[in-house]
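This entry is passed on directly below:
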Amino acid sequence: MQETAEIMNYEALSKAVEALRQAGSIHFFGVGASGIIAHDAQLKFVRVNKSTSTSVDFHLSAIQVAQCGAGDVVCGISFSGETYEVRKLLELAKEKGATTISLTSYGLSPISEIADINLYVSAKQEQVFRSAATSSRLAQLHLIDILFMCVLTSQYENSIRRLDEVRMGVNFVKQHDGAKRQ
């Protein structure tokens, strides 16, 4: 995470925050461990009333992106920067006029070449347990958290109101669920 912070391009981060803040809809995509990151991002941004999606189904993802246009954002997440499905979804998003953001390891890759805005995590290779995607996953989650907190603070009053509504909704469900069980 420290290496990721050291390579942070704050101009790109600012552009990504503004695109996400203004987005009509946001679509996060990744495959495998990066798909978990996409799901985490979707769960965060939906809390501030952003129309968001993610899917592990490539065809459903293509359907969602095919309905994008100017004002929408598609974020492709791939540590390698080479994941075929993510690359194809970003290509489709570009065709539809959506703003594209990549979240990859540092360096030029097929996915970063396509994206309008490139965000990078440390390119340091995983040690012995690469298949566990441990350090890359943590760095990606960290960057998603940074994006989310930046969007949150850029529209602070609205975000606080939305988060309070979400909290009340979850508490409502919990209270009624508990009463049902008794």
Notes: The CA atoms of residues 81 and 114 lie 10 Å apart.
